[in-house]
Amino acid sequence: MATDKRKSGKSAIEPEWADGLRQLYDSVVEEPLPDTFKDLLDKLDGPERKSPS
Amino acid sequence: MAESKSKRTAAEKADFKRELTEVVPHLRAFARGLCGRPDMADDLVQETMLKAWAAQERFEPGTSMRAWTFVILRNAYLTDMRRNRFRGEYDETVAERILTAPAGQEEPIHLSDLHRALLTLPPERREALLLVGAGGFSYEEAANICGCAVGTIKSRVGRARATLSSMLEEDAIPQRSLDDASAHRAILEELDEVAARAES
Predict the structure, then answer these.
(1) Contacts of residue A28 in chain B, CB cutoff 8 Å?
(2) Mind listing the pLDDT tens digit for each residue in B24-40?
(3) How buried is B104 (Cβ within 10 angstroms: 0-12 exposed, 13-18 middle, 19+ buried)?
(4) What is the pLDDT of residues B81-124, one digit of tens each?
(5) Cα separations (Å) of B133 from A14, B59, B143?
(6) How many A×B Cβ pairs under 8 Å?
(7) Prediction pTM value
């Protein structure tokens, strides 16, 4: 009872929007990183690395 | 709990931090895809970074930092969802803000449409599609990240693709389904399965 139509469209063919999906992802990857992340990364090393006086 | 903080050398810690820094943009992209709201996604990423840092002894140098941190992010997301942290706010803000369709546009496919459509997928399909179709992971890698069988990932990706295709082709993106209880139920049931498997 399977719809035979579906069978022909094997996975090799990418849907039209597939590129858009990557664009969505890449657009976030390429965003400049907000300072909050830089601050957090700086803090990760812990208190041992306090700014020298 | 094991207290082995000083096991890693300073150089190893520096390597870890460099690699972690490199994957942060990817974590943000994955998180944004998962939960839709940029501010929540970023909170999730920060949580992930702290957890990854705390667990760095468990990271095997030379393996994929991106895959390793994605697992952490995913788990954090599921935990938060379980605690309903995302739920209440979803329909009020996301649905209104993101899911407001720009009506009557005829161009082929808008990224905003695609994004909306993506966010209406059941979470487990959305994440599978994000990993494979956007993040470029192989089915095997995605299966490892999600802790399920390769076949499961393939079928989720396939269903996600089919759903998106038909939504976009027929211009029938549901306006509100982020607050869809059945989607949440599906992922929670699955969580239980995963948990049960891990315990056995």
Answers:
(1) 25, 28-29, 32-33
(2) 999 999 999 988 888 88
(3) exposed
(4) 877 655 434 433 444 444 444 444 444 467 777 888 888 888 89
(5) 10, 25, 13
(6) 77
(7) 0.73
On whether any CB of chain A is under 8 Å from the CB of B93, the answer is: no
Select from A22, A40, A44 the Cβ nearest to the Cβ of B134: A22
Complex ipTM, two decimals?
Answer: 0.71
* Chain-chain contact of B49 with A34 (C-beta, under 8 angstroms): no
Give the 3-state secondary structure percentages of chain A, helix then strand then coil, rounded to 5.
55, 0, 45
Residue ranges of domains in chain B, CATH in brackets: 11-85 (1.10.1740.10), 108-200 (1.10.10.10)
Contact residues on chain A for B49, CB-CB shorter than 8 A: 37, 40-41, 44
